[in-house]
Amino acid sequence: MFIITDTIVALATPPGQGAIGIVRLSGSDAIKIADKIFRGKKLAKQASHTLHLGKIASENKIIDEALISIFKGPKSYTGEDVIEISCHGSPYVLEQIIDLCLQHGARMAKPGEFTLRAFLKGKMDLTQAEAVADLIASQTSASHHAAIHNLRGGFSHELIQMRAELIKFSALIELELDFSQEDVEFADRKQLYELIDRISETIKALADSFKLGNVIKNGVSVAIIGKPNAGKSTLLNVLLNEDRAIVSDIAGTTRDTIEEVLNINGVLFRLIDTAGIREHTNDAIEKIGVQRSRDARNKADVVIYLFDVNEHSQQEIKERMEEFEKEGIKYILAANKSDQLEQETVNELFTEIEKPILFISARNKQNIQNLKDALYELVMQGRVKAEGSIVTNARHYSALQNVLNSLQDIKKGMDEKLPGDLVALDIRNALHSLGDITGEVTTEDKLDYIFSKFCIGK
Known about the structure:
This protein is α/β, with parallel strands linked by helices. The protein has helices spanning 30-37, 91-103, 113-120, 126-137, 141-151, 154-178, 189-218, 232-240, 284-299, 314-326, 343-349, 368-380, 394-415, 420-438, 444-451; strands at residues 8-11, 18-26, 38-39, 50-58, 61-71, 82-89, 107-108, 220-225, 258-264, 267-273, 302-308, 330-336, 357-359. It contains 15 helices and 13 strands. Residues 245-256 and 280-289 have low confidence and may be disordered.
């Protein structure tokens, strides 16, 4: 499938100016190429996992003083000989060092090619390789936790165990086909039923975790909607603890959607401040803003419906609730400017509304933490950070669904007493889908697609 004989080079640190920059080489000629540009000890004679200080030079021109790290295969990240050149983080210096490596036989690495080589050399399976990209992209403690769990092989280990048990039964059933004339049964059907039920339960739990995993990995979009002058922009500013949106007493100040990110307990919430929605306006620009607000509401994972306690009627709130529930929108009712009313009055205002209402004052920052807690709870629905595997990858989720379908086919086949070769075929389908997740069964095109999403130096 992949034949790797060359040596690759790439910048392993972010582009731009910095204190330190790292150039990485991997391949059979990595040490040989480094020796040609390094003025110091002969690297080919040095032990693996050692550091060496010297100078990087082109003929008689010194480019930089650098620290060379040697990692000899197979005990390296890629399983090949790896050289890391740590130098000063000047874009010019880094470019010169990479050019020198190219002149001496290396080629520029493709996105994710270092990790691809690690996968092809058996240093990690495909779920662990994908976890590398997730770890690099993690922005919260929750996404970091999920990526580290997968990188350490937690998810893979569960799948490998299930696959091994299925392979055992597949082999026994296919063995029966060789003795079809004797009408013998090597695979205990009762045990196979129990195995299918157990694996199905585990796979379903993993597939169900994708909703949580998607939240952890991609965050949650939250649209703040309501009438003009309800205090939406003030609420956004208070949630972010900065003056992000323009605030005034003039209705219709916000003309377009404004999006910012808020981290609540390790989950990213993408807050969208929208233009106030009112049915009748002659302002052409405001009409566009209102339409964008409706679009944002329809696309959001959660809606905060903010209303002024002094102006809204119970009937109006009921109509919004019916609208949200009809469209399947998760929502929170937030009554703003509640500091302007006595508590007894507040308690009596919305007695006909069955759903809880959060009474807040955006301007005075009252009960804002309660609103954050309500947002988090609505999304997480009581689920705590799991120590087990959480599926964050859409490709894994799709494959798990295929596994479930194959398991149902196996069970149905046994119920209907289908021939062993057909049951074996369904087992092979389940094995194929499990192997597709870990990379035991894959194609070159699929690997190209997966690793093309990585950064170049990884």
